[in-house]
Amino acid sequence: MTNLATQANRSKRGWATTMHVLLALIFAVAGIAELLGIEALVATFDTLGFGQWLRWVTAVLEILDAGLILLPGSVLLAALLMIGISVGVTISQLHFIGNSPVPPLVLMILSCTAAWLSRLSDEPRS
């Protein structure tokens, strides 16, 4: 029976690692695009009315977050930061920009799942 439990834990860890890499790629690409000043993103942050400093801060947080989620000891912190960023983007989409909130909500669900799966790192490895 322990062999099945070990196999299940390895499978969960594999899915968690895949999710971490996917989230890291998404947040890194988004942060780099914001740092590069892609016109659509600059216009989006102009629409928010806070100035471009928010674009720079968001970009740095997203890139930092992309690195943090790949470090085993900081997965929970990274996932919580990703959830916070996703909440902010969802609110912005709904109240200021008028775009669909589905993409940030999907990222929020993935980030919540990553936070939940981060508990696997606390379990002893077999």
TrEMBL record:
Signal peptide start-end: none
Recorded GO CC terms: membrane
UniProt-annotated location(s): Membrane
Transmembrane segments: 21-41, 76-96, 102-120
InterPro entries attached to this UniProt entry: DoxX
Membrane topology value: Multi-pass membrane protein
Keyword annotations of the record: Membrane, Transmembrane, Transmembrane helix
Name the UniProt record assigns to this protein: DoxX-like protein
Organism field: Litoreibacter roseus
